[in-house]
Structure formats: C-alpha cells, structure tokens
C-alpha cells in the first residue's frame, strides 16, 4: 500500500478556512483528502474526524443516514476549537461503493436493515479500511487524536495501526424519522456506542433539513 501526497490548497467554508491536502492510493487509484485547521503537528492530541464518503448524505442531503449531519457537526466543532483534522475517505457505502449502496437501499426499501442489505448482496456489514489513514496522518505530523466517532471498530483499527486515541468524543446529531431504524441498527448490530435518546433531532423545514 502506497498513499502518496499530491498537493495542498486553501479551502474556505462557512465554518473556517481549512487547508485541504490531497492524497492518492496507488493500490486502488482512489483519492482521499484531509482538511486541517491550525497547528496540528505539535504533538498535542488533535480533534479529529475520520469520515467515509457518503455522496447521498454529504452532497445530496439524504436523510436516510446521519453522515451529512456528522460531517457538518465535525467541521463546526473543529472550527470552534480552532484546530483539528478531518480525513475524508473515499469508502462509499461502508466500503461497497455507490452503485452497490443504491442496490442496498433498494433492499432496505423492501424491509431489510442496513446490515441485512449489505450481506444479501454478498458483502460484509462494514468493508472499510482504516490503515490507509495512517500515512496521511503521518504526513501531517499527527500521532494522537481526540476522535469524534461512535464506532468502536474505527477506534480499535486506528489503535492497532499505531495511532494514539487520546479521547473519543460521541457525535450524535441528525436523528429524523427516515434514519431512526438505521441508527438503531448501527447501535444494535454494529455495536456503535450510542443511544437514540442521546441524539439531537434534525432541523426539518417543509420536509427538508437546512444546510449551512
């Protein structure tokens, strides 16, 4: 596995002006990015989010999952702290890809939950890799994270690959009628460390949730 750094640039957003760092995975040809804010290579644990790509949630405002809500919450928290990193990993659909995610959604429309749908298509419940994050973090000089996640597998995978997790912060936002079963399945079948009564409700106006 070779993760190559390509280039960096400024990325102004409504939360802050981040620095965007581009990386390429020579093994898969996929590109991944890191957004950093402030000084992150000073050895102090860095507020962080490792976020897997979700086109439907992040860009198309889907309410079937909590991904877009988590992405915005993470960027806002990093901006408020004035320092942090967000790794945006090209692992759509927990690693099965966009078109297979649409197939999985079709099965969910017929009553399957998110785990059953993936398994019915011949995939594991979660196919993502986290070892590819390590070269990116190393390039940025980051070795200790205050990680925003509910996923114990993510925490353990990063620890196994040598990343210190100094703290885990829950990220419970975006509950709505369309993702309630999905979130319950993540807690019940995937072991995510969360309870639905801990979530903030999504702001819904005329059936849609506003984005910044």
Describe it for me?
By secondary structure, the protein is of the alpha/beta class. 33% of the residues lie in helices and 26% in strands. The chain contains eight helices and nine strands. Strand 8 (173-175), helix 8 (180-189) and strand 9 (200-201) form a beta-alpha-beta unit. The relative contact order is 0.16.
> How would you state the average pLDDT, rounded?
91
Give the CA-based shape: globular
**Biggest sheet, open or closed, and with what strands and sense?**
7 strands, mixed
Decide which structural class fits the backbone.
alpha/beta
Keywords:
single chain; 212 residues; alpha/beta; 7-stranded mixed sheet; two-stranded parallel ribbon; 8 helices; 9 strands; 33% helix; disordered C terminus
Brief sketch in words of this structure:
This protein has 212 residues and is α/β, with parallel strands linked by helices. It is built from eight helices and nine strands. The C terminus is likely disordered.
């Amino acid at each position: 596995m070779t993760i190559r750094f390509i280039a960096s640039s400024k990325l102004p957003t409504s939360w802050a002006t981040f620095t965007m760092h581009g990386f390429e995975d020579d093994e898969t040809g996929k590109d991944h990015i890191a957004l950093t804010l402030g000084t992150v290579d000073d050895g102090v644990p860095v507020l962080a989010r490792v976020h897997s790509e979700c086109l439907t949630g992040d860009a198309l405002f889907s309410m079937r999952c909590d991904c877009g809500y988590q992405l915005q919450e993470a960027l806002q928290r990093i901006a408020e702290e004035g320092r942090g990193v967000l790794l945006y990993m090209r692992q759509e659909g927990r690693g099965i890809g966009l078109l297979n995610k649409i197939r999985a959604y079709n099965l969910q429309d017929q009553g399957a939950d998110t785990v059953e749908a993936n398994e019915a298509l011949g995939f594991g419940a979660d196919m993502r890799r986290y070892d590819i994050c390590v070269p990116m973090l190393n390039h940025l000089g980051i070795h200790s994270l205050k990680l925003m996640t509910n996923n114990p597998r993510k925490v353990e995978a990063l620890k196994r690959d040598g990343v210190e997790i100094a703290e885990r912060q829950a990220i419970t936002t975006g509950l709505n009628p369309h993702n309630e079963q999905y979130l319950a399945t993540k807690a019940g079948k995937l072991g995510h460390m969360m309870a639905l009564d801990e979530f903030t409700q999504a702001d819904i106006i005329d059936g849609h949730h506003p984005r910044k």
